[in-house]
Design a protein that fits this description.
alpha/beta; 14 helices; about 425 residues; UDP-n-acetylglucosamine1-carboxyvinyl-transferase, Chain; 24 strands; 4-stranded mixed beta sheet
């Protein structure tokens, strides 16, 4: 099994280009099921979750031409597809459940495995299913599979989500885009990736618009057109490299990202002490030894993202005083804490709060990655530690970061993969 070896005490300096967004590309790939026309997607990130979704689409009958080198894919669903998503493919990523909406919208039935992914919480799909039921879907869960069907074409209605959910919002947007009549979705998630999904569906002929901060109006259509679409840049990858610069007292330019979609993260890093300037599609950050401590909680967009919580914790370990992070999205997302403590951090958890003592000088160690974002947080800590840190189980990392060793080496890190 692959490992990473990181030799620390390296300041990052130079330019990092941001790849396409995994979290935007996955629902967009699922939404291609809606159309029988050729769809071309550009700026597709070359990561394992994308490969898994492509395999899932191929398994149901999608005709696909995929170029990793060009980060480009052509998809066509000209023939009737199989409306079955196997556990063997869905088990490694929670986004597999997103094929449920388009299968029901276009064909009226689906059998989809309940989702997997990182072990960071239960992530129930009841919000998805209850909302789909309001469009006319009948469902049951048997042996880990959702069996769903609608006797008639999905019918638009008013739906208010019981809580803000990115996945449920995406599934309902996709399903409603072919439903008969008009659907009003309220209490929606408003992440930039959701807006990218809407832009894609409108690009192929959908009729979706915002009528309030968290309210969407969707007029169903029967057919979609051929189109090309470029996936937005990955704001979590951008945030990760910004934190990497801050934690190593580095000097980085992060290119290919609109600063407006990560304003909260930029503001937090400025508050902690980093010097940041930005232009239209570039952010320049200079780290500092004088890292200030803060109290922070994760929350739905535009709040601070749970997907950057582990990375920020590493930075706060270097702070001069105590910090507190409250994890408000997932109930099991502190698994990186034990590994950071093995490197010399002093972090205590209680419920959904992590209490960080600060003034940490990380020490090299052999570590075990537990999930995607925890994996990268261990790399950030290792970049500051004296000596060689070995990180095991990095298959998690490959699910969401494109060419991370190559990008880090380009800006001065000493890091290598061991097979």
């Amino acid at each position: 099994m692959d490992k990473l070896e990181v030799f620390g005490e390296k300041r990052l300096k130079g330019n990092v280009s941001i790849s396409g967004s995994k979290n935007a590309a996955l629902p967009i790939l699922a939404a291609t099921i809606l159309s029988d026309k050729k769809i071309t997607l550009k700026n597709l990130p070359n990561v394992k979750d994308i490969e898994t979704m492509i395999k899932l689409l191929e398994s149901i009958g999608s005709i696909i031409k995929y170029s990793k080198k060009k980060n480009l894919i052509e998809i066509q669903n000209k023939n009737r597809i199989k409306t079955f998503a196997s556990y063997n493919l869905v088990k490694t990523m929670r986004a597999g459940i997103l094929v449920l909406g388009p299968m029901l919208a276009r064909y009226g039935n689906a059998k989809v495995s309940t989702p997997g992914g990182c072990s960071i919480g239960v992530r129930p799909i009841d919000i998805h299913l209850k909302a789909l039921a309001k469009l006319g879907v009948n469902y049951k869960i048997v042996d880990g599979y959702v069996y769903a069907n609608s006797k008639k074409k999905l019918k638009g209605t008013k739906i208010k989500f019981s809580k803000i959910s990115v996945g449920a919002t995406e599934n309902l947007i996709i399903a409603s885009s072919m439903a008969k009549g008009t659907t009003i979705l309220s209490n929606c998630a408003i992440e930039p990736e959701i807006k990218d999904l809407i832009n894609f569906i409108n690009c192929i002929g959908g009729r979706i618009k915002w009528i309030g901060k968290r309210t969407l109006k969707i007029r169903g259509v029967s057919n979609f057109k051929e189109a090309e679409f470029t996936i937005m840049p990955d704001r979590i990858e951008a945030g990760t490299y910004l934190i990497a610069a801050a934690v190593t007292e580095g000097n980085l330019k992060v290119s290919g990202i609109n600063p407006n979609i990560i304003r909260t993260e930029i503001d937090i890093l400025k508050k902690i002490g980093a010097k940041i300037k930005f232009q239209k599609n570039q952010i320049k950050i200079i780290g500092t030894k004088d890292i200030k401590s803060i109290n922070l909680k994760t929350s739905p967009y535009p709040g601070f993202p749970t997907d950057l919580q582990a990375q920020l914790m590493v930075l706060l370990c270097k702070g001069k005083k105590h910090s507190v992070i409250s994890e408000e999205i997932f109930e099991n997302r502190f698994m990186h804490v034990a590994e950071l403590n093995r490197m010399g951090a002093k972090i205590r958890t209680k419920g959904n709060k992590a209490f960080i003592e600060g003034n940490t000088n990380f020490k090299a160690a052999e570590l075990m990655a537990t999930d995607l974002r925890a994996s990268v947080s261990l790399i950030l800590a290792a970049l500051t530690a004296k000596g060689k840190t070995t990180i095991n189980r990095i298959y998690h990392l490959d699910r969401g970061y494109e060419q991370i060793e190559k990008k880090l080496r380009k800006v001065g890190a000493k890091i290598r993969r061991v097979f």
